[in-house]
Amino acid sequence: MHSSLIGKIEKAKRYAEEPERIRFSRFEATFHGEHDEYVVSFADNHWHCTCAFFAGWNVCSHTLAMHRLLTPMMAKDATPSGAWTAVTSV
Ligand SMILES: [Zn+2]
Predict the structure, then answer these.
(1) Could you read off the pLDDT of 5-28 as tens digits, one per residue?
(2) CA 85 – ligand 1 centroid, Å
(3) Predicted structure pTM score
(4) Confidence of residue 87 (pLDDT cuts 50, 70, 90)
(5) To pair with 10 at 20 to 30 A between CA atoms, which of 3, 4, 18, 76?
(6) How far is the CA of 41 from the centre of ligand 1 (A)?
(7) What is the pLDDT at residue 18?
């Protein structure tokens, strides 16, 4: 294998150990919930989910789970909108 390609692969392995190097700006994913599949998306620092709970609360278990998983790769102010005040005030 070409030596420069080997160097890139080694670097990729190091980068993969440092998720904080990556910051998501937008994405869309299919979330397999307990009852159905939902589309969870993130753009402009805001989360969105197609589930009914999100429509009423602006937060849901799917967006919270995704945020929890991806925290090292999310901007510090990318907290699910209204999530913490809504959840902690209940
Ligand atoms: Zn949801």
Answers:
(1) 999 999 999 999 999 999 999 999
(2) 17
(3) 0.79
(4) low
(5) 76
(6) 10
(7) 96
Query: What is the identity of the amino acid at 82?
Result: G
Query: Which residue range(s) make up the domain with 68?
Result: 24-88
What's the structural domain count of the chain?
1
At 90, list the tokens.
Answer: 């209940």
Residue-wise pLDDT for 13-67, tens only, equals 999 999 999 999 999 999 999 999 999 999 988 999 999 999 999 999 999 999 9
Task: Report if residue 5 sits inside a domain.
Answer: no
Cα of 68 to ligand 1 centre, how many Å? 14
Task: Tell me which amino acid residue 57 is.
Answer: W
Q: Is residue 51 part of a domain?
A: yes
The length of the chain is 90
Ligand 1 centroid to Cα of residue 78, in Å, is 16
